[in-house]
Amino acid sequence: SRSVAARNSALASQMLHLVHAGRLIRIFGQEDREQAAFDTASDGVRRAAFVLATRQGALPPLTEVLHALLFLATVIAAFLANVSFPLTAAFLILLYRLQPHMRALQMSWSQLQGLSGSLEEVSWLLDPAGKPAPPLGSLPFPGLGERIAFEGVSFTYASEEQRAAVLHAATFDIKAGRSTALIGRSGAGKTTIVNLLCR
Fold first, then answer.
1. Which of 30, 76, 90, 123 is deepest in the core (most CB within 10 A)?
2. How many Cβ atoms are within 10 Å of 119's Cβ, its own excluded?
3. 58-78 pLDDT, tens digit each
4. Burial degree of 77 (CB within 10 A; 0-12, 13-18, 19+)
5. If you average pLDDT over every residue of the chain, what do you get?
6. Strands (DSSP E) along 74-198, which ranges?
7. CA-CA distance, 18 to 37, in Å (whole number)?
8. In angstroms, rounded to a whole number, what is the distance separating the alpha carbons of residues 73 and 55?
């Protein structure tokens, strides 16, 4: 489930990138490259969802096999312990009546496990721990006095698994009174730098 949520997030980022950078992609003739990146992200979501669905689908037949083994073990144990047939039959009937309730609990547990990745994403989003406090006050920003310094700044999106850092030890100055341009290939971290500047 975590893998599905992470790959869905990566696919959403890819789609958002295509929406915002569509003109640039066409201007520089990068349609094939972007199509390949989108196909890879989409295929990752499909594979992760297939694995999750396969594992969830394997639970009901596995449960049936385990219940059959439990019934068999009960009969064998009752025979070896010289338990009377009526008592064994009553126990098996009660066990059989309990089976649908156990299956419902198991399916509910399986569905909750299947949603755990999405629930963790939402709880991470709502959790204020480790995030900067919102700025206070109502005074307007008077302008940059001297500079903004990035010193060894690294950044990775929390929802993406096994992905390289978007920024790795970035160090530079944005000086007051000058125009500063961020130049780099698509995905180099330009938008991330602007988002970090805006907190």
1. 30
2. 12
3. 888 888 888 888 888 888 888
4. exposed
5. 83
6. 147-155, 167-175
7. 10
8. 26
* Whole-number Å distance between alpha carbons of 123 and 116: 10
Tokens of residue 113, six digits: 């496990």
Could you tell me which of 41, 50, 47, 51 has the C-alpha nearest to residue 159?
41
pLDDT band at residue 8 using 50, 70 and 90 as cut-offs? confident
Q: State the Cα–Cα distance between residues 192 and 190, nearest whole angstrom.
A: 5
- What's 59's DSSP letter? H
Please report how many Cα atoms fall inside a 13 Å half-sphere around the Cα of residue 185, on the Cβ side. Answer: 4
Structure tokens at 142: 């008077």
Residue type, 47: R
- The pair of structure tokens assigned to 198 is 């805006």
For residue 72, what are its two tokens?
A: 């068999």
Please tell me whether the overall predicted TM-score, pTM, comes out greater than 0.85 for this model: no
What percent of the chain has a predicted confidence (pLDDT) above 70?
96
